[in-house]
Write a structure and sequence with these properties.
The protein is built from 20 helices and 19 strands. The strands form four sheets. The protein has a six-stranded parallel β-sheet with strand order 2-1-3-4-6-5, sandwiched between helices. It has a six-stranded parallel β-sheet with strand order 15-14-16-17-19-18, sandwiched between helices. Helix 1 crosses helix 6 and helix 13 packs across helix 14.
């Protein structure tokens, strides 16, 4: 047996430590400087101890890991090589920092002697992500120091590195979950030997581990480092009386606490589609219209906010209105959602001395039901007007039904159809496009898992994030499919993530692409009415003509197209058995 070199021994010890501490997924983008980590990850996969996901693009790898952590709550360490590869992680790091998603970066680096001399693939990686990081350690290259460089020689340092990274990524009472970086220097030889075999031999012989080789560098800390600002001081809990006319607002990632409070207080629940609280008898779907109504929104005296509201202008307008008491429940985050800059920010709320005014809730629920009924009536097919008492009338009825099934798809139809097709075992991923606002405006209450990257609300990495969600939610042969609803530009922005690793299980994922020829979300902004139409089209809408069927087939995805109601219903009710792209042409 060949004794492993220090780089391989340390890499094995580090990844082995992460696995012992609960990591079940690793994400890898290949490269030379990170080869020892890559080989150790491959061996852990071969032993059946982790699921390994290999991406050729570091940006996709970062978002894939973000998706795994979003779904599972546990980081999936991302392994990349040195240089520009590290910079490609920055978009995922920024989203993870803003959305409080745990992320661990294992960035291979050149040794100190190659810095400052313009060596190939060398840059200042240790400070690259700045204040976005919760914790960072610049780890120098491992050295044998005259001892056997078996993995056991680095066991103590590896355990401490892994423990501190996971602690900081998962957050604590004084710091937020988020991204962590271990910047790992490696000298040549960059790999060699099989440290897992050395471990097995040592274990079989009952040999004691040699004294660990010291690793100098930044001090190791549990929890967040000074890089992460402490959570702003705020009351641990705040008691709410039940008399004020109150609405409960649930933004992205609010969770079930918002629905529980609305239920306990008999208050209207204004829950965004990605809040995790869009269900229950207090839910108000048409909250935008009702917030604009002086008879309801105009009488609100208090608003209790959970999560990160991002999908309407009416909510921030309410929170900035004079005479409305704003209470923001923010158990984490150095910043709290407070557009009016006058909210009471607390860690939790409790209902005290409840005296609910159920007539207040009733007014909202009745008004919401009327708006929903009016919208349904406006779109309902006029089949009742057909008298089916004769054969001729039966033919007319059949023709009317056929006309309904041939009705072109619009955004509202698409949102409702996808919502109906999704169940609790499924996952729904909504891109930061015009369609998520359509979902938020029309879909009724339903307790299904919905993911959306609303930390920075960007379109970057939508497909990669969804693939990570699929990897975590479908592990161990669990049932369900992932349905991703995105626009054509969001698809093209992340098209490289369509390239799947042939060695991994084929995910059950359906990309529903609403193709309206560009960024039509900007049509709703004031600039659309003031800018020159040709210039607006060129520099804002940025339409692109791509054959999506050819794109899907090039990456080995199945392709479907649904231009009318019948085709859409058929495509969404069919089982999702593998990666599939469903193109849905939409009007601008």
């Amino acid at each position: 047996m060949t004794e492993p070199v220090a780089s391989s021994a340390f890499a094995w010890a580090l990844l082995h430590a992460f696995v012992r501490q609960g990591v079940r997924h690793l994400v890898l983008a290949p490269g030379s400087r990170s080869q020892a980590l890559a080989l150790a990850a491959g061996e852990l996969e071969r032993q059946g101890r982790v699921a390994l996901h290999v991406c050729i693009d570091e940006r996709s790898a970062g978002f894939l890991a973000l998706g795994i952590a979003r779904e599972s709550g546990m980081p999936a360490p991302v392994i990349v090589t040195s240089g520009g590869a590290v910079a490609n992680l920055h978009p995922a790091v920024a989203e993870a920092a803003a959305a409080f998603v745990p992320l661990v970066l294992l960035t291979a680096d050149r040794p100190p002697e190659l810095h400052g001399v313009r060596a190939n693939q060398t840059m200042d990686q240790a400070g690259l992500f700045g204040a976005s990081l919760r914790h960072a350690v610049d780890v120098p290259p491992p050295e044998a120091s005259g001892q056997l460089p078996a993995a056991a020689a680095f066991a103590a340092q590896a355990e401490e590195l892994a423990a501190s990274a996971l602690d900081a990524a998962l957050g604590s009472a004084s710091a937020d979950p988020g991204p962590v970086q271990l910047n790992l220097g490696f000298r040549e030889p960059l790999s060699g030997g099989r440290p897992w075999e050395a471990d097995a031999v040592a274990g079989a012989a009952g040999a004691s581990s040699p004294a660990p080789t010291p690793l100098a560098g930044a001090p190791l800390t549990r929890g967040a480092s000074a890089l992460c600002p402490a959570v702003a001081a705020r009351a641990a809990s705040f008691g709410l009386g039940g008399s004020a006319r109150t609405v409960v607002i649930a933004g992205a990632d609010a969770g079930p606490a918002a629905e529980a409070l609305a239920h306990a207080g008999s208050w209207p629940l204004l829950a965004e589609v990605a809040s995790g609280a869009r269900y229950g008898r207090e839910l108000v779907v048409h909250y935008r219209e009702l917030l604009r109504d002086p008879a309801l929104g105009g009488r609100v005296e208090r608003a209790v906010v959970f999560g990160h509201p991002t999908l309407s202008r009416e909510v921030p307008a309410l929170l900035q209105r004079q005479g409305v008491e704003s209470i923001v429940v923010a158990p984490q985050g150095a910043e709290a959602y407070d557009p009016g800059r006058g909210a009471r920010v607390v860690r939790s709320v409790a209902l005290v001395d409840p005296s609910p005014d159920r007539s207040w809730l009733g007014e909202w629920v009745v008004a919401d039901r009327q708006l929903r009924q009016a919208a349904d009536d406006e779109r309902a097919p006029d089949l009742q007007a057909v008298n089916a008492r004769s054969f001729r009338d039966l033919n007319a009825h059949a023709r009317a039904e056929l006309a309904v099934m041939r009705e072109p798809v619009d955004r509202r139809m698409l949102a409702l159809a996808v919502w109906r097709a999704s169940w609790p075992q499924d996952r729904l991923v909504l891109a930061a496009s015009r369609l998520i606002r359509e979902f938020d405006a029309v879909v009724p209450g339903k307790k299904i898992p919905v993911h959306a990257s609303r930390g920075l609300a960007g379109i970057d990495g939508t497909i990669a994030t969804a693939l990570g969600i699929a990897a975590a939610s479908q592990a161990e042969q669990r049932p369900g499919a992932v349905r991703v609803v995105l626009g054509d530009l969001a698809l093209l922005h992340d098209a490289g993530s369509l390239l799947l690793d042939p060695a991994e299980p084929r995910p059950r994922i359906l990309l529903v692409v609403g193709n309206d020829g560009g960024g039509t979300i900007f049509d709703s902004l004031e600039v659309a009415a003031t800018a020159d139409s040709g210039v607006f089209e060129r520099v804002v809408l940025t339409p692109r003509s791509v054959e999506l069927e050819a794109l899907a087939h090039a990456y080995g995805w199945s392709y479907l197209r649904a231009a009318n109601r019948g085709e859409l219903e058929a495509a969404l009710t069919a089982p999702v058995t593998g990666p599939t792209l469903l193109e849905v042409p939409l009007p601008r």
